[in-house]
Amino acid sequence: MKNKRAVIILFQCIFLMLPVWAADDSALDRLPIGASPQRLELAALEAGLAMDTATGSQADMASLVRRYRDRDLFVIGEAHDSHACHAWQKDFIEALAGEHPRLVVGFEFFTRDDDPALALYLEGKIGEDELLQKTGWYLRSSLNFGYTRLVLETVKKLGLKAVGLNVPRELIRRVAKGGTAGLSAAERDLFPGVERGDAQHEFFIRATLGAFAVQMPQWFRGVYAAQKCWDAVMAESMRRALARPGLRGQKGVIIAGSAHVAYGLGIPWRYRRFDGRARILTLVPVMVPAENKESHDEQSPMVSALAGQLQPAAVFSRGLADVVFAVPAGEKPYFAEAGFSGRMNSNGAYEVDRVAKDSPAEKSGLRKGDIILAVGGVPVKSLEGLRLLLAQKNWGDELELDIRKALPLNGE
User: What is the second-level CATH architecture of the domain 3-16+337-404?
Assistant: First the structure.
């Protein structure tokens, strides 16, 4: 089959891989669960605002830090592909460091084994490219590092410590497929207390995953076992980090997906099981759409007119977190996405296995089964290398691909 050259213009919004905490699934923000006395009370926030949910009052960053400066651990949720979430985290860490310059920041997307590389990077002994190579960032994830860079550069600038919270994903995948029974004793020790569960947490994760979790109970059991391991190891990683001789007395900040933080379940619940005296503050974002989604077509003209004057806002249960901050839901990812995914096949070539509908990739003729040989003239030799090349592109750039078509295109 003939090789072809495709030029993809990165101009269009696509969401190839949505995070579990989906921006348009606001119902997950309104669940009446958790231990908060305010869990049955609803509130609304416009983008750019934050709320102390115990009082229901809005508060700026400086006020929040002063009010909760006695806390030992700050667990901040995020939508992984939200630049606004990471910008808020960055600002919060800067404000917190002004009160407590001795902070340890833990990242979900780094593992414990990445700690030496993180230390070298923060000390200025290696650059970003070497950090990504040593940690295998694009080997294990397609998420653009730029989101995490926003926070990590702040940690570096302020002279703070950083640690990885996770373990290799292969372990989590094995749990999802076969439970913890297939792990060795040493591997099970990585997830202390994982055998204990919480009914509200299980309900939340099932609600997050939707109908599939209800209709496929055996599948959900494996996924939920993996979720518990994920929460357990991240909580334990921070607890161990703060117990190190050189870090005792420091405060911890955990950066993780909101599904690991919401309603005080997940990581906070696991952390408290091993340190009941820990004073923990949970902070979770809510996404504000560009315009109000609710239809008022069937309402009275007066109600419709009033509704049209309201600013877009996110509605949530005040039990969602101790602090809820509202960020705009991006109409497109901050960093460019072409709209395809794939794998290295048995022949060592990158084979496309998914093309997002209406994405730049689809509109440029890329199809499932196509082989991508090169990007901008650079041969594709590994999944990690391809992801790094794609991550360097911006919206509006051209993405030139050399491909081998799976089938003749337009009869050619």
Answer: Roll (2.30)
Edge-first strand order for the sheet with 73-76 is 57-58, 50-52, 323-328, 280-288, 73-76, 251-255, 103-111, 161-166
Nearest to 72 by CA among 232, 253, 241, 247: 253
**Model confidence at 24, in pLDDT bands (50, 70, 90)?**
very low
Contacts of 137 (CB under 8 A, 6+ apart): 109, 131, 145
Compute the distance between CA of residue 221 and CA of residue 14 in angstroms, rounded to an integer: 31
- Nearest to 86, CA basis, from 143, 163, 15: 143
Report pLDDT digits (tens) over 306-344: 666 788 999 999 999 999 999 999 777 889 888 999 999
Domain 26-328 CATH class label: alpha beta
